[in-house]
Design goal:
The protein is α/β, with parallel strands linked by helices. Helix content is about 50%, strand content about 20%. It holds the Pfam family Response_reg.
Length: about 130
């Protein structure tokens, strides 16, 4: 299965999403904000199949994280999540860097489905390359 980094400042959401993805057999690491996520990415040499990140977080938000990740780890697929409409609009300018944006609240089935779609797109991109 895939190796996924979940970045979310809300403990309950981070645990909910992580557990859901582990139920599907994925290897999941977590980070509390963008700065923490960058530390994990550097420590793990960017060896993830997917970065699932919240947009609105303290210290470093998901938009800044996306720019940093895209500069260092070009092949990493990024899926964003947000509960704020204005934050989703901010992510629209990242279309070439982000697979999609999932709107909160989402169900267990919805987040699992979106992650599956993002990973499938990643696998197709890798097969073409």
């Amino acid at each position: 299965m895939a190796r996924i980094l979940v970045t979310e400042d809300d403990d309950a959401v981070r645990m909910f999403v992580s557990r859901a993805l582990m139920m599907d057999g994925h290897d999941v690491l977590t980070a509390e904000d963008g700065e923490d996520a960058l530390d994990v990415l550097i420590r793990e040499k960017g060896e993830f199949d997917l970065l699932l990140t919240d947009i609105k977080m303290p210290i470093m938000d998901g938009i800044a994280l996306t720019h940093a990740v895209a500069a260092q780890y070009r092949d990493l697929t990024i899926l964003m999540m947000t509960g704020f409409a204005d934050q989703r609009e901010r992510a629209d300018g990242l279309a070439e860097l982000v697979y999609d944006v999932v709107t909160k609240p989402f169900s267990l089935a919805e987040i699992r489905h979106m992650v599956k779609c993002a990973l499938n797109a990643n696998n197709l991109r890798a097969a073409v390359a």
